[in-house]
Amino acid sequence: MSVNQRRFPVKCPHSGQRAxxxxxxxxxxxPSRPRSEAxxxxxxxxETETESQTETEIQAETEIEIETAAGLARVTVREPAGEPxxxxxxxxxxxxxxxxxxxxxxxGAGLALGAVAALVTQPYVVRGARAPGSADKQDAAWAxxxxxxxxxxxxxxxxxxxxxxxxxxxxxxxxxVGARGVIALAFPLHPPGHPERSRAAELPPQxxxxxxxxxxxxxxxxxxxxxxxxxxxxxxxxxxxxxxPATIGGAAGEWIRGLLNRVA
Length: 264
Hints:
Layout: E1 2-11, E2 18-27, H1 41-44, H2 51-55, E3 58-68, E4 71-80, E5 86-91, H3 101-112, E6 115-121, H4 123-126, H5 135-152, E7 158-163, H6 165-177, E8 181-185, E9 210-215, E10 229-234, H7 245-263
Parallel strand pairs: 2-3, 5-6, 5-7, 7-8, 8-9, 9-10
Antiparallel strand pairs: 1-2, 3-4, 4-6
Helix pairs in contact: 3-7, 5-6
């Protein structure tokens, strides 16, 4: 396995903290990427700032490419100042990218608590497909991505999260990859109009601390809570969870803080 990387300074517009951005490739070397393709903070921050995002000091931002059996995954890694409290790995829904308002809100909440926040674009999206295809292949690729990231940040607790289809992936793989907790954003309990086709069995078997954040008006349904599964229903929100990211970040931050206190 080879790693190619480049570093250059960026600046977080919220904290004013100077940071170092780095472009890296994990796996077989590929063509070099222009400096402009690294993702600076000002292109991915949401317009709504939470207190935790404002106070976060960013040490470095890194773009990594990880080769998996399903193809190349791209990961933007944001490191806090100081020793990491945990590794928080987040991903997108079907055909999306990890820069949606809800995913960024959770990433910001994690960073404020000292997490390394890794935003994963899965291989099927990188290669231009809109549908993830085989769940088994998707889960296997996810396990490879997690293994590569844990190799960079050994010895810290893993929390993984995702929205919609990505929520299904992180729930299905949580035990296999050794996660200490799961955050499921807009978990699609069933296809719209078909409650008989429930995906509740994909939720992590207990005891796996799990936070589910779903919109009140989500046509994909809302999972039930239970032992270890906390479900928060967001009033007026749809499956997109595009409104009020501050509330999403606040709920996620409270849950992450509690989990870290328990696993410390």
